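ARCHIVE CARD
Drawer: 12
Card no.: 0347
Subject: one protein chain, sequence and derived structure
Cross-reference: see card 0346
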Amino acid sequence: MKKLTFLTRGVAASLFLVAAGSAAADTIKIGINQPLTGAFAASGTYIVDGAKIAAEEINAAGGVLGQQIELVIEDNKSNPTEAAAVAEKLITRDQVPVMMGAWGSSLTLAVLPKLMQYKVPMLVETSSSSKITTQGNPYVFRISPPSWVEAEMFKESLPDLGIKKVDFLAINNDWGLGTISDFSKMFAEHNVEVGLKEMMDQAAQDMSAQLSKIRGSDSDTIIVTTGVEQLTLVLRQAAALGITKRIITTGGSQNPDQLIQQAGGAAENSMHMVFFAPWDVSKTVHPEQSQAFLDAWAKAGHDIAGVTESYRGYDGLKVIKAAIEKAAVAEPEAIRAAMWEIEVPTLNGNVVFQKDGPEGNESGQYIANGTLVVIKDGKVVPYGD
């Protein structure tokens, strides 16, 4: 018994506990690791709200494998150390066989060692750092586009945009640094000059120093990467400084409708890469599914501004549900293996995972669909309309 007690801190016993706990439970537990407080709280809350809508739909239709699903929601406080601790708690105490998380790239990267240690899969719904799927972690399956995929999408608009030189303003973490790296490579390949690379801490509220430097440069475009709350401040401060350069955001976590509400005229003419475009449901990949989600979102009393981010939580849970069904058992290894065999219609598109990373230990990556939109006259419209 002493040996068994010791091994609960290792891989074998943890797997035993997770499998046994899942089999004995009245519900199938799914761990949700999101920032519900701290700098990214608005975004994490949107993800959770989207996941709750999916859970309600799944349970109303009979659940999974004859059982209802139960979301075990934990707050990682927008902190990587806390994100890792939350993952361990979900696995060892709550005995979840699968998780979704952890919003930001630095948060998700902090969780990855726990997935390997306990051999439990995680669906990554938002994070964009390329490192997440290239480190040789076979328990990672991502539905959000890495920054290199986003850069590839963006290059299609370069001829129309006529960009000659860009400056970057990005959050100082793996998300922002990865965006600068991948977009800089793409720009270099297409003869677009890269100028300043300004960084901002995630808790910073005054970006006037960085913006003043950018105002004095000879760039025509500013690429901004951060969450919606900080982006609101950036837009307001750029307007106050009289900056008239084109502002384009990346990452899909900027919620254009929310920017209109919070930044007002300062958001006018800003451009954004989004991965769910609800402004014209008929143009989404699965219009009926999109409308059903929007109806459920409104019925729940949520602000429409959150749908461009909350869809990730909704899609993520639908993918997890499909994997559990395919596995035919709510056990970590079976769910991990099933992720490679599913094709799931989601709000973004039909999710199929491609292999990414070292041979034999690949992570799963879905190549997402994206749309460039612009705010005109206080409304969101597709670029080019």
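Annotation on reverse: The two ends are 69 Å apart (CA to CA). Confidence is low (pLDDT under 50) at residues 1-24.
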